[in-house]
Amino acid sequence: MTKKVAFIGAGSMAEAMMAGFFHSQMIEPRHAIISNRSSDERLTFLQDKYGVRTTRYPQALLADADFVVLTMKPKDAVSGLAPLIPYLHEHHILVSVMAGVSTASIVDVIGKKIPVIRVMPNTSAAVGKSATGMAKGAYATPQHLEAVKELFQTIGTVAVVDDEEQLHAVTGLAGSGPAYIYYLVEAMEKAASEIGLNREDAKELILQTLIGSAQMLKNSPKAPETLRKEVTSPGGTTEAGLKELQKHQCQEAFIQCIKVATNRSKELGEALRNQMLNQT
Ligand SMILES: NC(=O)C1=CN([C@@H]2O[C@H](COP(=O)(O)OP(=O)(O)OC[C@H]3O[C@@H](n4cnc5c(N)ncnc54)[C@H](OP(=O)(O)O)[C@@H]3O)[C@@H](O)[C@H]2O)C=CC1
Ligand SMILES: O=C(O)[C@@H]1CCC=N1
């Protein structure tokens, strides 16, 4: 049976997931409905581009929904959930993609024994290539988890973690991950310009280098370190380049980047809990 999805929040992550679900034909646009806080322009854009329905009436939003996907920022969790509470029932499966926010916090805000699956996708969902992690909340059954896993497998790979706390690490590594890669590409583009390549050639060369390396990592049994060493001729160009990266402690910086992002996920979850405590 065709599933119906309601999105609470109409930002970049909601759009990436929608685009992926529609492309995979897991969800039909007419079976998706989306809301946000205030931007009419954004809702009109999504309606025109994808053919989805839009509304800010909670009852209309939740009436037919099988999955209710929480795609607002963690700080907006309470204000986003509050108007939905009277219309949320145990037959809804809540899917939260909010960084750092625990399933327990969501259940506490709602005040009902509702199934919640916490999911951390990334924006590559838009092209069916998300690296998604997920865990189930206290009132979600293995069947609920399986249903959400099936949904997200249409937009990429899914790792189910036993301990929900591990989703902070999934966030630091893979949720934020695309941004690290884009940052690297920005640097490669700047370098290409400075060393005299035109934009079109540089774009193609960078893209193919990334795709080729990703494919090698995926298909080859060799470790990344071995693959790196195979590129690095003694006394050659790669060695000279890598020495510069080591001088700037690039690897350490990347490790620290992922740790700091992981920690930020924990902070976002704690900030919401404090916000909830201050409101009671
Ligand atoms: N971007 C990413 O790569 C990823 C994001 N996430 C998570 O996804 C969530 C959304 O992120 P992102 O899409 O980047 O954020 P955006 O800022 O792009 O979008 C947030 C959306 O939430 C809406 N919103 C805010 N308050 C409410 C409310 N009270 N009721 C209904 N809607 C509301 C906003 O509406 P309006 O504009 O009208 O205020 C906006 O449409 C976050 O929790 C983030 O942690 C998870 C994985 C990856
Ligand atoms: O930056 C953020 O907080 C969100 C969560 C993961 C990716 N973007």
UniProtKB/TrEMBL annotation:
The keyword Membrane does not apply. Pathway: Amino-acid biosynthesis; L-proline biosynthesis; L-proline from L-glutamate 5-semialdehyde: step 1/1. Residues 4-100 form the Pyrroline-5-carboxylate reductase catalytic N-terminal domain. NADP(+) binds at residues 8-13. GO terms for cellular component: cytoplasm. Its EC number is 1.5.1.2. It is found in: Cytoplasm. It is an enzyme of class 1 (oxidoreductase). Keywords: Amino-acid biosynthesis, Cytoplasm, NADP, Oxidoreductase, Proline biosynthesis. Residues 164-268 form the Pyrroline-5-carboxylate reductase dimerisation domain. PROSITE patterns: P5CR (PS00521). Residues 218-239 are annotated as: Disordered. It comes from the Bacteria. NCBIfam families: proC. Catalyzes the reduction of 1-pyrroline-5-carboxylate (PCA) to L-proline. This is Pyrroline-5-carboxylate reductase. It comes from Priestia koreensis.
